[in-house]
TrEMBL record:
<keyword id="KW-0547">Nucleotide-binding</keyword>
<comment type="function">
    <text>Part of the Sec protein translocase complex. Interacts with the SecYEG preprotein conducting channel. Has a central role in coupling the hydrolysis of ATP to the transfer of proteins into and across the cell membrane, serving as an ATP-driven molecular motor driving the stepwise translocation of polypeptide chains across the membrane.</text>
</comment>
<dbReference type="InterPro" id="IPR020937">
    <property type="entry name" value="SecA_CS"/>
</dbReference>
<keyword id="KW-1003">Cell membrane</keyword>
<feature type="coiled-coil region">
    <location>
        <begin position="629"/>
        <end position="656"/>
    </location>
</feature>
<keyword id="KW-0963">Cytoplasm</keyword>
<dbReference type="InterPro" id="IPR036670">
    <property type="entry name" value="SecA_X-link_sf"/>
</dbReference>
<dbReference type="InterPro" id="IPR027417">
    <property type="entry name" value="P-loop_NTPase"/>
</dbReference>
<keyword id="KW-0067">ATP-binding</keyword>
<comment type="similarity">
    <text>Belongs to the SecA family.</text>
</comment>
<dbReference type="InterPro" id="IPR011116">
    <property type="entry name" value="SecA_Wing/Scaffold"/>
</dbReference>
<feature type="domain" description="Helicase C-terminal">
    <location>
        <begin position="421"/>
        <end position="586"/>
    </location>
</feature>
<keyword id="KW-0175">Coiled coil</keyword>
<dbReference type="GO" id="GO:0031522">
    <property type="term" value="C:cell envelope Sec protein transport complex"/>
</dbReference>
<dbReference type="Pfam" id="PF21090">
    <property type="entry name" value="P-loop_SecA"/>
</dbReference>
<keyword id="KW-0811">Translocation</keyword>
<feature type="binding site">
    <location>
        <position position="496"/>
    </location>
    <ligand>
        <name>ATP</name>
    </ligand>
</feature>
Length: 775
């Protein structure tokens, strides 16, 4: 009876402390059996260990006996290859992953090894595994780091990154376990959807995805569709419009919504713009094209900030991925906006493109029959993981108790008061020799703070999008005695901060002083990001502390809870506020921000489900065209005489490929046109809402009939192209026949906010038009 009461008490405690978490009892019960195998496995040679792992390949699914064997073999392989014996909690994480859950393990608890052992376990079941990371650096690092463990278990491993050729990618995807950033794997999916020869495909059919930093990928990245575009011609930026918009002032000439996603001209602003552009009527029929240029230039001017949303480096505009704090390599904004930003910065416009295809992270992961993940902050988004991915969270206890001290927020009346207090805090802690990590919101803030510290003889190392190539080295040394590190977004940095630095030389000295001190310069729009920054301190039972500084004039409050209650008083000298109402206001702003982002995710999911269903149906048809002679059969049926003449000239195989090229070109082009059509529908859908029609129903009503026209149109256009095509001895002349594909492709970074629930932009445009008509 006492034992039963103890178990019930333990379960009740876990339920209270970790809501939405699955029970770990099944896995904990297997730990003794795993431990009992250690002496036996230690006696095996490396070859014998590999041979024993190979016996698991005969098992189609893993029950408890197989979980025990995988964990025991993995622990031994890690001990030999890395000189690391996996802790019991790491094995709990491995078992949670192997049974299809998202495991929550705190920073520094060894998620990388737990993930590698789970990936090896799936591979030993004969399944192809993708370990999906948030960036290319972590993908390569983890594949190389864990490589010796995989080899001892007889499992092949590779990775993909932007620099790889198509052949190198194919080789990496041919491994049993492949590491890659979510964007890189997604873009390879999109590239494969554009090939016209089977041998050009690089990815096999997906089977298992293990997602590192799962909350960042599954929740934050889910709002960023991956978009592939093809070069059409040189973009033409409206420099005249850019120069006019540059002179406009917020509040007088234009307004923006509270969350900074939309901007629109006021009546005064429209008048100024019309006069500056030669007296045109922006809202008349003849002004439609100029109005579009003004809107996109206004977006670039009002909503995109240099050193926050993008950098200008080497004469180019480079986007910054907000959720990672890194430059988004080879990515750009959709057409018009990219050119507008380039005009704003007085740079030459780059090539214009057309969208060829897109995929959301949610749709990308839906391709995998089995999905699991790991992160340090999963419970906070447990409901979203269940709603959107049908994934449950398993909270793994730390190997050692967390003794980090999380201090209450320090709140100030203004950002200037806050900045002075941060500077004073850094000086005070630095004088003791404790290492300090300062987490800032963006590049501009990190550099401003670094400049201020330098002026008062407090040198620091800065990590932001300008130098993210040096990330590992900077983060690894952030725990050294006396170190001060200023970094943008810490989510997904993926490198542990060890007390005493990478070599641990001064570990005991730093630990005695209190360990790493983390300072947040503002609360993030998500409590998870706050937790990820705090979690950089106190790893593996180390001492440490964390504190956030905040202001009632921070962007978070101004954007999501600007109506601050009256009567909140600040200290006259320091500007610090101790009234609990201030803390409640900041917490409220963060909850509102989380709600807004959830609604964006939910809307993205609702509206893209239909698009993904249509894409899946069209992909089935594309795959038939790619892998069978279907295209040749269709064109022979429609133009038999010409077909027979060309067959004599080109041979059967050459003509079949030519027919395939023609049909695939038109399929891809029509899908691109369909996406453009759906974008137009999206931009006008709220006008239907004003007419009391349901936007979602209207979207379906319009989109479905248009999609049904695609396959018949493919055949009609293909027949015409075939009849007019020019053929040479080498086959179809693509350029002369008008079926030439883009000479280059690139990717778009789009923070999708389809069908914004408050549809402020549409309403304000309508209101503005009505005001003008009345006047």
């Amino acid at each position: 009876m006492p034992a039963l009461i103890s178990r019930m008490g333990k379960r009740l405690r876990r339920l209270i402390e970790r809501p939405a978490s699955i029970e770990l009892t099944r896995y904990e019960a297997l730990l003794p059996a795993i431990g009992e195998l250690e002496p036996e496995l230690e006696k095996l040679t490396d070859a014998e260990l590999t041979e024993r792992a190979a016996k698991l390949r005969r098992e189609a699914e893993f029950g408890d006996d197989q979980l025990i064997e995988v964990c025991a073999l993995g622990r031994e392989a890690a001990r030999r290859a890395l000189d690391e014996r996996a802790f019991d909690v790491q094995l709990l994480g491995t078992m949670g992953l192997l049974t299809g859950h998202v495991v929550q393990m705190e920073t520094g608890e060894g998620k990388t090894l737990a993930g590698a052992l789970a990936a090896a376990g799936y591979a030993l079941q004969g399944k192809s595994v993708h370990v999906i990371s948030v960036n290319d650096y972590l993908a390569r690092r983890d594949a190389e780091w864990m490589g010796p463990v995989y080899r001892l278990l007889g499992v092949s491993v590779g990775w993909v990154e932007p620099s790889l050729t198509r052949e190198e990618r194919r080789e990496s995807y041919g491994c049993e376990v492949t590491y890659g950033a979510v964007s890189e794997i997604g873009f390879d999916v999109l590239r494969d959807r554009l090939v016209s020869r089977v041998e050009d495909l690089v990815q096999p059919e997906p089977e298992v995805a293990i997602i590192d930093e799962a909350d960042s990928v599954l929740v934050d990245e889910a709002r960023v569709p991956l978009v592939m575009a093809g070069s059409v011609d040189a973009a033409v930026a409206d420099v005249e419009v850019a120069n006019v918009v540059r002179r406009l002032r917020l509040g007088l000439h234009y307004e923006t919504d509270s969350d900074g996603r939309n901007a629109w001209l006021t009546t005064a602003g429209a008048s100024v713009v019309e006069k500056a552009l030669g007296g045109i009527d922006l809202y008349g029929e003849s002004g439609a094209e100029r109005l579009a240029a003004v809107n996109v230039a206004l977006h670039a001017h009002a909503l995109l900030t240099r050193d926050v949303d993008y950098l200008v480096r080497d004469g180019k505009v480079q986007l910054i991925n907000a959720s990672r704090g890194r430059v988004a390599e080879l990515q750009r904004w959709p057409d018009g906006l990219q050119a507008a930003v380039e005009a704003k910065e007085q740079l030459p416009a780059t090539d214009r493109g057309e969208i060829l295809d897109s995929i959301t992270v949610q749709a990308l992961l839906a391709r995998y029959p089995q999905v699991a993940g790991m992160t340090g902050t999963a419970v906070a988004v447990a409901e979203q993981l269940r709603e959107f991915y049908r994934l449950e969270v398993a909270v793994i206890p730390p190997n050692k108790p967390n003794i980090r001290v999380d201090e209450p927020d320090r709140i100030f009346a203004s950002p200037s008061h806050k900045l002075r207090a941060i500077e004073a805090e850094i000086r005070k802690v630095h004088e003791t020799g404790r290492p300090i990590l300062v987490g800032t919101q963006d590049v501009a803030e990190s550099e401003e703070l670094a400049e201020k510290l330098a002026k008062v003889d407090l040198p620091c190392v800065v990590l932001n999008a300008r130098n993210d190539a040096e990330e590992a080295e900077i983060i690894a040394e952030a725990g050294k005695y006396g170190a001060v590190t200023v970094s943008t977004q810490m989510a997904g940095r993926g490198t542990d901060i060890r007390l005493g630095g990478a070599d641990g030389k001064d570990r005991e000295r730093v630990a005695e002083l209190g360990g790493l001190h983390v300072i947040g310069t503002a609360r993030y729009p998500s409590s998870r990001l706050d937790g990820q920054l705090r979690g950089r301190s106190g790893r593996q039972g180390d001492p440490g502390s964390a504190v956030f500084f905040a202001s009632l004039n921070d962007d978070l409050v101004l954007s999501y809870a600007p109506d601050v209650p009256d009567g909140i008083q600040a200290d006259d000298e320091t500007g610090e506020i101790t009234d609990p109402a201030a803390q409640r206001q900041i917490n409220h702003a963060q909850r509102v921000a989380e709600g807004v982002h959830l609604e964006i995710h939910r809307n993205t999911w609702r509206y893209t489900r239909l698009i993904e269903h249509q894409r899946t149906e069209l992909l089935k048809h594309r795959d038939k065209l790619l892998r069978t002679p279907l295209a040749a059969e269709k064109l022979k049926e429609a133009a038999e005489k010409r077909y027979e003449e060309l067959e004599e000239q080109l041979g059967e195989e050459g003509l079949v490929q030519a027919c395939r090229e023609i049909m695939l070109y038109h399929l891809d082009q029509l899908w691109s046109d369909h996406l453009a059509f759906l974008t137009d529908v999206r931009e006008s859908i709220h006008l239907r809402a004003l007419a009391r029609e349901t936007p979602l129903d209207e979207f379906h009503r319009v989109a479905i009939p248009e999609f049904r026209k695609i396959i018949p149109t493919i055949e009609e256009r293909s027949v015409k192209s075939f009849e007019e095509a020019e053929f040479t001895e080498k086959g179809l002349d693509l350029a002369a026949s008008g079926v030439r594909r883009p000479s280059s492709t690139w990717t778009y970074l789009v923070h999708d906010s389809p069908f914004d629930s408050n549809f402020e932009q549409t309403l304000n445009q309508v209101r503005n038009l009505l005001r003008r008509k009345k006047s």
